[in-house]
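Could you please consider the sequence and fold following this short note?
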Amino acid sequence: MSMFIGRGVLRAWSGGALLITLVMSGCSSKIDTAPPAIVKVVSTRPLPMQIIEWDEYVGRIDPIEEVEVRARVGGHLESTHFKEGQIVQKGDLLFVLDQRPYQIVVEQAAADLAGAEARVEEAQAQLKQAEADLAAVESQRDLAASMLERSKRLIAKNASTQEELDTRESNLKQTIAALEVRVARIALAKSAIVTALSETNAARSRLKSAKLNLEYTEVKAPVTGRVSNRVVTDGNLISGGTDQSSLLTTIVSLDPIHCYFDADEQSFLKYVRLVEAGKLSDLRSMQVPVLVALADEPGQYLHQGHLDFLDNRLDRRTATMRGRAVLKNPDLILTPGLFAKVRVPGSGKYEAVLVPDTAIGTDQAEKFVFVVDATKTIQRQKVVIGPKIHGLRVVRDGLKGGEQIVLRGLQRVRAGTIVEADFEQTVALDDGLPDEAPPIPEQDRIPSYVSGESTRSREFASSAH
C-alpha cells in the first residue's frame, strides 16, 4: 500500500517539475525577445580651451634680510628705544649703552691729537729757524772766502802779513763747520716733523676709533623690518665686538619678501625640457612668474612675484631642487614662517580638452568615459587624464573635444546600453589661475636683497614711534 502511495507522489512531483520547466522556458523566451530598456542619463560635451598648467608646491615665507642685533662694544645697557614687535626703519635708535667710559677715551684721544699737532708745529718752527741760521752762516762763509782771497792778493804784493792770511783761512774753516752744523740741524728738524706727523696720524686714528666706539654705544637698526622682543633688559652688562656678543633682539625685513619651495626631480627635468623647447623662460633669468596663496586664501592667488633663485644642484637626500620666489608685500600680510601654496607654470600655452571629474570612471588603474554615439548607444573610451584646471579635468589622450559623454548616471550604464540623454553645458570655473604666463619684463622685476622702504612700512614706523 505504501509502495503505491510513493509511486503516486513521485509521478505527481515529476509532472509538477515538468510543468514548472515549461513555464520557465516560456518566460525565458519572452524575456529574450523583449527590447532592451532605455536608460536616462545626463550628458555633456568636453570643453576645448587654451590653457597653461600651473604646478603646485608647498612653500615657506622667509625674509630677505634677517639680522641678529648685537652691540659692537661692551658695557652696561642703559636704555631701550623701541616697542617690541613694531616696524623700525634702517638707522632707528634701538639701544643705548653707558657712554661715559667711551666719552673719556674720546677726550683723551683728542688731547693726544692736540699734543701731536703742537709738536708738528714746533718741529716746523725749528726747521724754519735752522733754515734761517743756515742762510746766515752761508753769508758768513761767502764773506770769509772773499776776505781770504783778498788777503792772498795782498800778501802777493807784500801788502799784508802771513798772520792775517792764516786768520782769514781759520775764519773760513770755522764758517764752513758752522754751515755743516746748520745743515744737520735742518735734517734733524725735518726728521722731527716726520715723527710728529706720524704721531699726529696715529693720534687722529685713535680719536676716530674712540669716536666710533662712542657711536657704537648707540645700537641702531641695520635694516628696515619688524623687530622682535628684547632679549636683554636695561641695566645688564653686555659683551660686544665679537661673534659671541650678547644678542639684543632680531629684525626681519618684510617688503619685498621671499618664498622658498622644493621641486621634485621629474618636475625639474620637465622645466628644463620646456625651456629647451622655447615654451618657458629660462629658470634663472628672473622672468618666470610665480603665484602664491596663503592658507586662508583658497582659490585666490593674490600675491604675485617671480622666480629669482634656483639652486645649483639637487639635494642629495631628498632629490629636490630648491627654488625661491620674490614677492612684493606692501600690506605686510606675508609674514616670515607662514606656509603658502606656490604655483609655477608647468607647460606652455596649448589647446586642452576639459571634462568634469564626474564624467570620468575608474576601472582599477584605468580611467574611462562613456561616449554616446549617433545611435544613442554607449561606447566605453579609455582616457589619459591630467591636472584639474578651472574646476575641470584635463584629458591628455582619448578625446578630441566634440564627443558627447555621460556626465551623470555612469553607474546605470555599460558599453552597449541605449540611453536617453539630457544635455548639460560644461562650464569652466574661475580658479584664480590665469590662462597665460608671459615672461616678467625687466622693469617689473622685484629687486632682491633690498630692505623694504615701502610707504606702508614708514606709516607703521611713524605710528609706532
